[in-house]
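Tutorial, part two.
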Amino acid sequence: MHRQVTIVLLLMFYFAVVSTTAEKPVFPERMPIVERPFTDDPDKFTFAIIGDKTGGGLDKWHVFDRAIDELNALKPDFAIMIGDLIQGDTTRKELLDSQWKEFWKHQSDLTIPFLPIPGNHDITNRVMYAYWKTNIGRTYSAFTYKNCLFLLLNTEEWHQNDKWTNWFGKEQIEYIKTQLSKHTKVRHTFVFMHRPLWLHENSGWELIETELGDRDYTVFAGHHHKLTLYARNDRRYFVLGATGAGFTSQEIREVGAFDHYSLVTVDGTDVNVAIIEPGNVFPADISIQEFKNKVARQLSFKHNFKLDRSTEISSGSIDITPKNTLEKPLIVDLVFDSNENWIITPNRLQIQAEPGLSSKATINISVRSDSITPLPVYRYSMQYGGEQLSSGTRLFHPIPRESMKVIKDWMLLGPFDLGLKNIPSDASEFPKNFQAIQLPDTDLEKTYNGRSGEISWIEHHTIPDSIELRKLFGDTELTYGFGRTYIKSPEARNVFAQVKWGGNLGKVYLNGIELPTARIPNRHLYGWWVHFALPLKKGWNTFTFLTADYNGYWDFRLEVADFDNVLELRSNSSLSK
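Running the prediction step on this input gives:
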């Protein structure tokens, strides 16, 4: 009896020791972390995820501060921030020092361990990449905690090298593979990254997802400033919203446009995610993809319009049909912006649809067939149960997709040094040295002094629709370059054209003369379409673009309308006379 009591007491002592012994995480060298004591509970734990603070939101530090205060009250084991800690977008060290000083001032009130990962605002260029490595620490990391694996990835790792492979880079992907192979017995794997790269093809994520295999895992990203829960491979993929960053707030929480942070609780094999707005707590499925898919299908626009170049006036209509498959009444408001070329009646209307019902309204439109630019724009908004649900702006595009030719054959020249040491602090600034750049010689055999040595024109056929200059030119930050192609027309005519700028600065020239209607507006902006008339002369026309970029996200796309399939396109000057 005495021996049995002794064994029981020893077992009780053993389990008491085990249950109160903390498993400390093992961090790689120079991993970014603000170290504070970890919890002693070996089985159950909770951690927090803080969303984007930057990308707007300059006046919203109070939201971030409130979240910090609430985390201090909730006492999770630690907090991970999903990226975009500072405004960034600079190469000036003194400005970086100032922005990081401001962030750490607000973060310093947090009383639990804090682990940041970089976002595109934290690493916008190679200067900021080096700053993070020197002053913050590793750009990607992994650690285990209470038999769970945490992968903290860097979607901006491509700034490390001039040669583009994917968003993660070869070294980071190999690191991830190594960590996953070392930790095959963990009860759960958590993956964190700033950009939700599973939404992009050939981003590098597909390589990581293959390695994750059939293990239990959950993925968290940010960047979009709106909450969305995706179901993928029978796993949960979260795009988390902002914690103080800029966005247009909407009262309907299912849209996901509200400030929040998240609490993740691991209990055995269960993983629970709570979405918390400062002052409010929501379940993880408050904003699911299915609801957003329904919202996207509520409003239908049918264009009944054909541009007839054989007649002086082309006319048609737009049918707007809200089909309410939601649970509350819908009210749709539409406003067409005025335009001297287009006649639109009525230019303002409101449509209502009760749950389970649809409604319809028709807009009549007409335009001179030889003068369709600028294209008309209309703005819409939907109220759901009396609250703002969604809004947007649409461009009325009268040219059928099959009539638009994407120009894929080009002669390219670059990169040249832009002559700027710092990105202009004023987003509307148009640098004088860019404005003074002269077009290169018409001789395509001539060589030039480029940014990194002697360069000459190269012939390029693009497989995607866009010319991806960041891949073709290599070292592309604070540089400019040229593209040239040739268009033959059987007669003098105005041709509708559209260019998609993926850069910071751009101009278009036809036969050596600039077309001001096709330039990039004076602001820091990527992925912007411009629509304009291209006044072709009879015979061969020389089309040249000049474009410059600050950060390396650089591409360009040109399309021209060719209803009769009579335009001839060439990339070089070996043209038939």
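The radius of gyration is 28 Å. In part three we will examine how such features are distributed along the chain.
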